[in-house]
Amino acid sequence: MDDTCDRKLDLDEFSKGLHDYGISLDNSEIHNLFSEMDKDDSGNLNFDEFLKALRPPMSQTRVNLIEQAFQKLDRTGDKEITVDDLRGVYNAHYHPKYQNGELTENEVFELFLKSFDSPSNPDTKVTWEEFLNYYSGVSASIDCDAYFDLIMRLAWRL
Hints:
By secondary structure, the chain is mainly alpha-helical. It has helices at 11-20, 27-37, 47-54, 60-73, 83-86, 96-99, 105-114, 128-140, 145-156; strands spanning 8-9, 45-46, 80-81, 126-127.
């Protein structure tokens, strides 16, 4: 759909893409859908906005598991996961780059946090919204609640 290869869709590309995929909507429906998906009101859909719009909603069971994992990591209870929160919860000493001396313990923690951090705000502080968004993406690829439950419990020792 991204004819200009700029990793975003304008209304014309979006409209053409819907047509190309056989989705029949009138112009007002296309405009309304585009506006709903364009969360930052930029007039373009960036890659994250597009993917978020396509994700199915998560069950409350999944959200509860994600919340348990977040609370386990947020040791200070300030609604952000930081490097200090990770001490005692995540062991950086097993990371290969720590073991070979390439990264310090703090650098391993920062690398870990960046995997959850929002690309638009890479501050090595992970908010509940960023954590939920990350797992919403994971959830979209897992059909079964029981399997998602198992993955979360094993990953976070819940």
